[in-house]
Amino acid sequence: MSEDKIFSFKDEVKRRRTFAIISHPDAGKTTLTEKLLLYGGAIRSAGSVKSRRSNKHAVSDWMEIEKKRGISVTSSVLQFNYDNYCINILDTPGHQDFSEDTYRTLMAADSAVMVIDCAKGVEDQTKKLFQVCKMRGIPIFTFINKMDRTGKDPFELMEDIEKVLGIRSCPINWPIGTDGNFKGVYNREQKQLELFNDGNHGQSIAKVITGNLDDEDISNTLGNDIVGKLRDDIELLDIAGDNFDINKILKGELTPMFFGSALTNFGVEPFLKEFLNITTPPKARPSNAGDIDPESDNFSGFIFKIQANMNPAHRDRIAFLRICSGEFEKGMLVNHVQKNKKVRLSQPQQFLAQDRAIVDKAYPGDIIGIHDPGIFNIGDTLSEKQGDLKYKNIPQFAPEHFAKIYTKNSMKRKQFLKGISQLAEEGTIQVYKRPNIGMEELIVGVVGVLQFEVLEYRLKNEYGADIIRENLPYRYIRWIQPNTYDTSNFSLPMDSMIVENESKEPVLLFQNEWSIRHVTERNEGIVLHETSIQD
Asked: Strands 254-259 and 140-145, how do they pair?
């Protein structure tokens, strides 16, 4: 596509596709993201997350700890053009310890691509992320990955998806050859064989040879066994499989299913083309003023992510804004609804992971980064003309692991507190302190224990503050509804602790569920909540 092609506002909206990629760790999610960028022309040579030893890493894994560990620990945003579509990919962490970041990112997506390892089928984290997609009612596409390796029978994978996730599937294509003998896919709609070479071991675009089942040369190349099994499989799918139903797909009730190998590029482009053909442009978003039409003349959007130090040299802080309606223009003055103040968006940026460029215009479905001097929070709404417009709040996950943290060097206390404050505003951690103790002792709560490792790493490398961590035994958290308990006559078990969050809300930490029942029984009238009162 020519980069300088001019589209009308409505055409710009219609060509947008914004989706998140989700999976269990190591199913190949980040590799698939990389290959989509390759086919979109955003990169010339793909770096697999398996290539750590050669100092090559995936574009979407931009944090230093991601490059060293070979995992994604934060969501990244990538935009590219393909076949007149403008595509926004939200690559999410697969590890369950970072599920809160993934949840927030899914709030900004219009659809989701679920990557499944053909050898392992549906795994634990896939179930959790699928449920979040299901709650939102967004279309869910399934990419069965690693078909170049030994794996489960494709029909078994279909059954796995139905039984474990509770959603029916409709294969758009079907694998030709399995168990390490993957040759390509059969396009069911076009009744066409699509055979691939390896695309230089996955680093370049794979060439495709097309044909049909009656083509004698292709049949001879594949062999009678593969062709015979393919004919039987297609006949069984046509008779017993679910029919393609666009309405069910768009409601998240039926998942289109694709087979391929992201590592070798087999099946990546057929998936991308069909995905773009099936998905829709951004739809209306619910708000306190009803559903907001993307083609409205009022620019609006919401903050779903905040990231500090994307550029370590500048110690910058970026708020990620999902545009929901209207046309964005660089330098425009908007209402920061929650703070009831005007904000000028003077240096908006768009991303290819950590690489970015100043953008003059953007449209519904796009993700832009705006410099945050410390005024934005996750869930905030920005609106040009409607100063009271609010999009649905993004709730916090309840932490399940807690620790006291201190700075090793008292001379670094200022950097330590700045780092803790900024990482808390990102949503990476939740910070509490005991009443009347002050800031000398901080208690940090996280959803997954690996977040502690990321916390220590980032405090040291981004803020120059080494810390001491003392793990605490608490596993449950409850917020106390104001005016429902008497501070002078409050009964709290020895294995529990009362702390405060930044909003001075009283919060209780418990080691077990028995202690929660003890508090409610011994303190008449007390009301406990599993999420923050302000949510």
From this structure: parallel
Lowest-pLDDT choice from 137-146, 214-223, 402-411: 214-223
- How far from the centroid of its chain's Cα atoms is residue 392's Cα? 18
Count the helix, strand and coil residues of the chain and give each as a percent rounded to the nearest 5. Answer: 30, 30, 45
Residues 175-196: pLDDT tens digits?
998 887 889 999 999 999 998 8
d(CA 76, CA 91): 5
380 CB-near residues (< 8 Å, 6+ apart): 302, 303, 319, 336, 337, 338, 339
Q: Is 532 exposed, middle or buried (0-12, 13-18, 19+ CB in 10 A)?
A: middle
Q: How far apart are CA 37 and CA 272, in angstroms?
A: 11
Judge contact between 180 and 264, C-beta under 8 A: no
- pLDDT at res. 391: 95
Helix axes 124-136, 99-107, angle to 10 degrees: 30
pLDDT of residue 66: 44
* Cα atoms in the 13 Å half-sphere on the side-chain side of 40: 23
- pLDDT score recorded for residue 76: 67
Banded pLDDT at 245 (limits 50, 70, 90): very high
